[in-house]
Amino acid sequence: MVTAIATQRGEGPQIVYINDAFSEITGLTEAEAIGATPDIIQGPKTPAYAQTRIQGAFDLQLLIREVVTNETRSGREYWLELNIIPLLDENGRITHSALIGRDLTDLRESEHSLRVAAATDALTGLSSRRTFMDRADVEFPRARRHRHTLALCDIDHFRQVNDEHGHHVGDELLKAVAVAITAELRTMDVCGRVGGEEFAMLLPETPAPSAAEVADRLRIRVAGTHVEAEAGPVAATISAGATVIYEEDADFGATLQRAYQALYKSKGSTIGTTLRMDAM
After folding, report:
1. Is the separation of the CB atoms in 7 and 17 below 8 Å?
2. What pLDDT score was predicted for residue 34?
3. Rounded to an integer, what distance in angstroms lies between the CA atom of residue 22 and that of residue 25?
4. What does the pLDDT read at residue 276?
5. CA–CA–CA angle 95, 97, 98 (5° rounding)
6. Could you say which of 3.90.76.10, 3.60.15.10, 3.30.450.20, 3.40.50.150 is the CATH number of the domain covering 2-111?
7. Where does residue 177 rank: exposed (0-12), middle (13-18), buried (19+ CB within 10 A)?
8. Same fold: 2-111 with 120-277
9. Helix axes 208-223, 167-183, angle to 10 degrees
C-alpha cells in the first residue's frame, strides 16, 4: 500500500513522509518527494475534475477517494486509487493529511488487454467482426452522404486448404492474406475479418471505378501470397464483391447483405478475383 503524509505549509500541502511502496510505484526517491506537493503523482492523464477534488480535499481538509495516473522516468505508466484522509492531533485539530494509495496498474493493464482482445481478431490482428460492424455503424451516415464503397472478399477454396493441408496451414494462409489486404489499403479504410475466410472493407471516398482498382490490386497482391505446407507451397486467390452505399439505404446490415450477394455472384466466374458491383 502506497503511503505518504502531507501537511499544510506556506501556500499549500507538502509531503513530509513516504513509505518504500511509494518509491517503488512512482519511481521517486525520498529526497525527491519530501517537500514536494502531492501534485507530483498526478500526471497529465489524471482527469481535471479529479485534480480539482484533490486540491479541494487539501484546502478544506476533507476525506475523498480519487484515481490518479502518471509515468515514471522510465515511461512506465501507473494508476493509484488515492484516499486522502485528514489526521487529527490529541486536541482534535487536523494537522496532516494521509495519502493512502492502492496500485491499480495491473488491473488497468488487464482491462486494456481484454478490450484490445475483444476488438481484434486474434488470428489476423484485423478488427473483429463486432468492431468492424460498430465502426461501420458510426461511419454509415457519412458513407450514405458521400456514396462510399463497401467491399467484401474471401479466400477461394479455403475449406479445401484446411482439408488437404490442415487447419494450421489454413490459419497461416489467413494471416498472410490479411497482411496482403492491409498493404493495399489506406489508413482511412476500415478492414475487418467478418467470417471464417471473409474480409470486409469500408472504403471512404471511393467511387465504384476506384473500388474496382482496389480489388484488382488485391487480386495481384494476394496472388503473390503463399505459405509453406508439407506438400509444398500453398497459394491463395480471392473473390470479391462490392456495393456503393446509397443515401436511401436504411441501415448498414442491408448494405452488407447486398455486398454479400455481389460476392456470391462473383464466385466461379473466373479464376482469381472478380469484382462484382451491383447496379449503380
Report:
1. no
2. 93
3. 5
4. 64
5. 135
6. 3.30.450.20
7. buried
8. no
9. 130
Each residue's pLDDT tens digit in the chain (280 positions)?
A: 877 788 877 677 889 999 999 999 898 999 999 999 888 888 888 888 888 888 888 888 888 898 989 888 888 899 899 899 989 888 888 888 899 989 988 888 877 777 766 788 989 999 999 999 998 888 889 888 888 889 999 999 999 999 999 999 999 999 999 999 999 999 899 999 999 999 999 998 888 788 878 888 888 889 888 899 988 899 998 988 888 888 888 889 888 988 898 888 887 665 444 556 664 4
Q: CATH top-level class for 120-277?
A: alpha beta
- Residue 64 in grid coordinates: 475523498
Query: For residue 41, what is the DSSP state?
Result: G
| Secondary structure letter of residue 39 according to DSSP | G
CB of 114 closer than 8 Å to CB of 107:
no
Beta bridge partners of 155: 238
Catalytic residues: 197
Residues forming a β-bridge with 168: none
- In whole angstroms, give the CA distance from residue 34 to residue 109: 29
Contact assessment for residue 93 and residue 41, using Cβ atoms and an 8 Å cutoff: no
CB 242 within 8 A of CB 150: yes
Residue 35 to residue 20: CA distance in whole angstroms: 17
Exposed/middle/buried for residue 16 (C-beta within 10 Å: 0-12, 13-18, 19+): middle
DSSP string, 119-187: HB-TTT-SB-HHHHHHHHHHHHHHHHHHT-EEEEEEETTHHHHHHHH-HHHHHHHHHHHHHHHHHTS-T
For the chain, the structural domain boundaries read: 2-111, 120-277
